[in-house]
Design a protein that fits this description.
alpha/beta; pyruvate-formate lyase- activating enzyme; 454 residues
């Protein structure tokens, strides 16, 4: 007879700037586990919608056997504020310990970047690094049957000697259903004006600063197009949702797959608008024209710099000519687009910055979102560079927001020089909350940054 009945899946993210983000990872876990374990009761708790007091109330009933906590971000990745979320996560875990006897399992992107140090700080019973669905399924079964769990892929646990062990991962899922929770849909549609879906996992690129390969792995897994379209149909026809954002690390990794997905969306009759993160390469006029017919309205380009020398420093596989070309195509097709950049990162000089500012003048009707410096994460090339240069030590945890900033740029003049271009540069200290609330109250959906272009 099963010893486990009730499992609570918790989205610990309570950060909502510029808007609350739908807890997609928890929803994928919830959908997967409910289907695989129909005799168990699974529920979702979301700290964007509910309070710590609500959390204590649920736990104090004594009915919860396992609490799975997803850590989305470690901090706000904003050099102007440097808000760390670790103390909040500690408070969440301590609440579970104080109010219940439930087993605690932690995972999510934030945990996957810092599994050992966060395991030591938060003291869960178990952790899961990387893709969580199958690993959590196996772990629940082992806990339920008091069976050996030590071979589960991605599992993080403490050995009898007190050492933290991380099991390697060799297998990944390539088909995932997604059933949206009605209460979550209502809340995020109202507050965020969009819902999120994945079409693929994994990133094969070698950007020196990026943690995506650490979180999702380098092997790209494209998810079943039929299941994605069915999810869109359910959102559109059953719930009236008209905008989604595809949260892939880079949407256009595999355009053969994307073309198939776009064609199936068109055939389905779903009139859902969508946006995604794109790399400014491997895109033709025909590709983007097809994507637009399938509903594409917003592109967020991970361009990072408009200087070729700096793109090379960052480990990019495209040039400014590629960026300009795809910007012009997007403009011609009437697709809204924004460029996200890193100013003052590894290798940056005032010369490369000036190239970025000058080249920005060539790009029509765009918004530029610059980040200052590069957040240093473990297991990245930037981490190795920072150690070699003596910027950090191999013993630094990096949990507190730590940035690599080039010594060859004048940070005090960056904002002034950017704004002098006459283009729309939106720095991280820009407060757009009032604008967001105004447009949401008018029932305008989507990212909304297109209204900042003028």
């Amino acid at each position: 007879m099963s010893s486990i009945k009730n499992i609570l899946l918790v989205s610990a993210n309570a950060y909502s700037n510029p808007y609350p983000v739908y807890p997609l990872g928890i929803s994928y876990l919830h959908t997967y586990l409910k289907k695989q374990l129909p005799l168990f009761n699974f529920s979702i708790f979301d700290f964007n919608r509910q309070s710590l007091s609500d959390f204590k109330g649920i736990l104090s009933t004594g009915d919860i056997d396992i609490v799975g906590v997803s850590l989305r971000n470690i901090d706000d990745t904003n050099i102007y504020r440097k808000n760390s979320f670790i103390d909040w996560y500690r408070q969440v875990i301590e609440t579970v310990r104080n109010a219940s006897t439930a087993k605690v399992i932690i995972g999510g992107p934030g945990f996957s970047i810092f599994p050992v140090i966060l395991f030591n700080i938060l003291k869960p019973d178990f952790g899961i690094k990387g893709e969580g669905e199958e690993s959590l399924l196996e772990l629940i079964g082992c806990i339920d049957k008091n069976a050996d769990y030590k071979r589960i892929e991605g599992l993080v646990y403490k050995t009898l000697s007190g050492r933290i062990k991380i099991n390697p991962r060799t297998t990944y899922l390539n088909s995932l259903e997604l059933a949206f929770d009605k209460d979550l849909v209502d809340y995020y549609w109202s507050k965020s004006g969009m819902l999120n879906i994945q079409t693929k996992r994994g990133c094969p690129y070698n950007c020196i600063y990026c943690s995506y390969p650490v979180i999702e792995g380098r092997k790209v897994r494209t998810l079943d197009t039929g299941l994605i379209v069915n999810t869109l149909k359910d959102l559109y026809f059953e719930k009236g949702i008209t905008y989604v954002f595809f949260t892939d690390s880079v949407f256009n990794i595999s355009n053969e797959y994307n073309i198939k997905l776009a064609e199936e969306i068109i055939k389905s009759g779903v009139k859902v608008s969508w946006g995604a993160y794109f790399s400014p390469h491997n895109l033709t006029y025909e590709d983007l024209s097809l994507f637009k017919r399938a509903g594409l309205t917003h592109i967020e380009f991970g361009s990072e710099s408009f200087s070729d020398m700096q793109l090379e420093n960052y480990g990019k596989h495209f040039t400014f000519d590629d960026i300009l070309k795809v910007s012009m195509i997007s403009s011609d097709l009437g697709i809204f687009f924004a460029h996200f950049l890193i100013l003052g990162g590894y290798g940056e000089t005032d010369l490369s910055l000036n190239q970025t500012f000058e080249n920005s003048k060539k790009i029509p009707l765009s918004v530029f979102f610059p980040y200052i410096g590069m957040r240093i994460y473990p297991d990245t090339e930037l981490y190795n560079i920072a150690i070699a240069e003596g910027r950090i030590s191999s013993t630094d945890t990096l949990l507190e927001p730590t940035y690599y900033i080039s010594k060859h740029v004048n940070l005090d003049t960056i904002k002034e020089r950017a704004l002098a271009t006459g283009k729309k540069w939106i720095f991280p200290d820009f407060d757009d909350h009032g604008m967001m609330e105004k447009f949401r109250s008018r029932n305008i959906r989507g990212p909304l940054w297109e209204f900042l272009r003028f």
